[in-house]
Each structure stands twice: as structure tokens, then as C-alpha cells.
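Slide 14.
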Amino acid sequence: MKIDDIYTFSTIKDYLNFINYDKAVFNGFSIGILEESAKVIPQKMPPYRKHFYKIMVILSGEIDMKNNSEEQHLDTNTLFFSGEGHIQSWESITPLSGFVIFFTSDFYSTVHKKNKLHSDFPFFTQNASMSISVSNEESAHLKGICESISNLAEQDIENKEDIFRSYLNIILLEAKNLYVKKIGTNAIIQDSDTRILNRYNVLIEEQYGKDTEKVLKSVQEFANALAIHPTHLNYVVKSLTGKTALQIIHDRKLMEAKSLLLQTLKSVSEIAYNLHFDNPTHFIRFVKRKTGKTPLQLRNT
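Slide 15: predicted structure.
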């Protein structure tokens, strides 16, 4: 399905069907072997948005990956992360080996709170690095966990999904330790204010990639949806991030604009209307004010 000319996959199965990879999905969870998928998936994937999470343990091979506005060359011993709603595209250079894990927030939240994906795991937050390099030993350790999950997928047992959730949590916690070790994090205590911030970030993310005109735009509208006063929302966001609530909205909108400019051939006018600007001129001014460059200058950088 296309929304605003971007392929949009609501389910893991829809995505797997699109890339021609026949793999079982267990109620919002799936694991694939990259050597298998490399035989059937497109060498060059057009821009798409997905409403599920993705982690890749790349043991070897090379791929040029675009995730939102970030572009990286991924190769041997790389751990890759992609959150819900991200715009991605790729071009395979040499076939990958390793594992890919897909899961939905609903699958995770059966046992854990959904918001913990954003609050506890820094690689799923806005503007997080899409990947980290790992050592041979770290890569071998992750490989062993993924092999156990992959073997489980082939077994016929009643509590398979519960075991998947346990393994998934192990992978996420192991990945968090590696991410913090190599990049660091500004993780904060999960108090009531932090929960408001997490709900706010999740709500902002939900505004993208939906075939609807009922999009929240103003701080007032977001505050109403969160059932709090806009002044309190702004105070919480400012105290925890150093930015106003409106700046957070603008940061996410700018990231979306960059993603569309860098990963698609959509015109500036099309992107402006997709992002719900009243007209292209307002969009151009917004981008110029935030980056010092026009949209076309950003595209050609």
C-alpha cells in the first residue's frame, strides 16, 4: 500500500510478501536468516515506511542503508536498529549473512509496557544512531542468541510466543548495554514526568505514515490528546529535554522532511503538502530557518 507515494507496511507479513521472503510470523514476531533473504529480496529497495521494529545482526556482507535522514554503509559485525514508523531504503553491495528480527509494539507490550521501547532503549529514540559496530566476541554472542531463537521458530511447542518474548527482551537488553558502552545515553529515571514525555514522543510518531486527515499539529492539540494542560506539557518537555514542546514537534517534522528529500524524488510542493503545511512557501521557510538551507539545497548536498 502507498500512502503519500511511500510504500507503507502495517504488518510484518505485508512487508515480507513485498520483498518476496517467505518466513513465518508469530503474532507480531519473526526472525529471518540474512543468507536466506539475500537470495530473494530486491538488491535495491525503494523508500518505505513500516509500523513495526527491526533489528539486524550483520555478521558479514555490505549494504548501503538509509534510515530516516541518516545514511550509512553497513558491513561485518554491525548491529542495526530501526524503530516504528521510520522511512528506509537500501542498496545491497554484497549479500549479507546474519539475522534479522521483526516485532511489533503490541507483541512486546503483552508483557512489557509499550512506552518502554522508547524510554528504555536509546536506539529507538528520535535521532538515535541507526547502527553500532561490535567486536568479534560480541558478534558471536549475539549470533548464539539468534540461533536459539531461529531454532525455536522451527519447533512445535505451545508456549513458543512467550519464549520469543523472553529472547527478544534479552536481545534488547544486550543491545542496550552495547549501545550505551559505545555511544552513551541520556537515559533518565522513569517518573511521572518522563512517562508524559514518552507518551508525547509516541503520539508525535503516530502522526506519520497514516492515511488520515486527522493529524495533530499544535501543542494544544497534543496536550488535549494527552489530557493535560499545554503549559504543563511544555514545562515537562522543557525540563527533561531542554527544548520546548513545539521544538520537539518541529524536530520530528524536519527529520521527516529530510527523509523525503533524500530518499524520494517527490517535489518540494508534494512534500510540503504531505507534511500538512498550508503551502510550499511556508515549508521552504521552515526548512531554511531550521537548517540554513533550502529544501533543494538539502537534497543536493
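Speaker note: Residues 17 and 79 are 24 Å apart (CA to CA).
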